[in-house]
Specification:
- By secondary structure, this protein is an alpha/beta fold.
- The chain has a single domain, classed as P-loop containing nucleotide triphosphate hydrolases (Rossmann fold), CATH 3.40.50.300.
- Strands 2-3-1-4-8 form a 5-stranded parallel sheet, with helices on both faces. The protein has a 3-stranded antiparallel sheet with strand order 6-5-7.
- A hairpin with a 5-residue loop joins strand 5 and strand 6.
- The longest helix has 15 residues.
- It is globular, with a radius of gyration of 16 Å.
- The N and C termini lie close together (11 Å).
- The chain binds BIS(adenosine)-5'-pentaphosphate and zinc ion.
- The site of BIS(adenosine)-5'-pentaphosphate has 37 residues, from helix 1, helix 2, helix 3, helix 6 and strand 6.
């Protein structure tokens, strides 16, 4: 299955992706994770991305599209993929269409996870992420068993620099201006499935499964 998870920052794309990729046995392609890995490794890509990511701005389309083009060409994507956080602009969505046409592939579905902006600010300021494996926690809804430590690998939990409130508000504005138009873009193509992202995590998964006929 070739799937896109669409939604504002903090909607739960990463959380749902972790469950869905296991079930669908397809690679999880998160451009945000790819940029953070490059920043941690100190590569040229990481250096380019850092100034944008830290401010909550989008990394330029040319850089992002190039990154996804290389990733989708890898053999593990032949059985399908789940895109999380890409596309995020109409230009990226159009580039993705062209890219897939060139690979003789088509999208199966776009899942739009809907959450109210005020809920998002709360979710992101309470999110903690494992420095080692990237697992995601929430101080209230999904706390780790022992404070500050990842349940999965024992790694240190940290707050993403772009999860501080001022940056979160900027990310939400960027989403409204640049990413929200994709809801109509995919609705017109007949690919859009919207789910209520304010329900419990497990309930959201159930709704996504039902929308996808899994
Ligand atoms: P990215 O990493 O993609 O960030 P994002 O889209 O802002 O999404 P998040 O990771 O913040 O949220 P999520 O929806 O995955 O939510 P999560 O599951 O973690 O991008 C970061 C930056 O990279 C961008 O700002 C940009 O600079 C750059 N970038 C990335 N892609 C790009 C692109 N295509 N083009 C240009 N630039 C790009 O959940 C959030 C919290 O809520 C967690 O604590 C979780 O435990 C909790 N939670 C989840 N679901 C529920 C629920 N149902 N109920 C209660 N709590 C929940
Ligand atoms: Zn971990």
């Amino acid at each position: 299955m070739r799937l896109i998870l669409l939604g504002p920052p903090g909607a739960g794309k990463g959380t749902q992706a972790q469950v869905l990729v296991e079930e669908l046995e397809v690679p999880h392609i998160s451009t945000g994770d790819m940029f953070r890995a490059a920043m941690k490794a100190g590569t040229e890509l990481g250096r380019q991305a850092k100034s944008y990511v830290d401010k909550g701005e989008l990394v330029p389309d040319s850089v992002t599209i190039g990154l996804v083009r290389e990733r989708l060409a890898l053999p593990d994507c032949r059985k399908g993929f789940l895109l999380d956080g890409f596309p995020r602009t109409v230009a990226q969505a159009e580039a993705l269409d062209e890219l897939l046409a060139g690979l003789d592939m088509a999208l199966d579905a776009v899942v739009n996870i809907q959450v109210d902006p005020e809920v998002l600010v709360n979710r992101l300021s309470n999110r903690r992420t494992c420095r080692n494996c990237g697992a995601v926690y929430h101080l209230l809804h999904k706390p780790p068993a022992s404070p500050g430590k990842c349940d999965a690998c024992g790694g240190e939990l940290y707050q993403r620099p772009d999860d501080h409130e001022a940056t979160v508000r900027n990310r939400l504005e960027v989403y409204t201006a640049q990413t929200r138009p994709l809801i109509d873009f995919y609705r017109r193509k007949g690919l859009l499935h919207s789910v209520d992202g304010e329900a419990e995590v497990e309930q959201v998964t159930v709704e996504i499964r039902r929308e996808l006929g899994l």
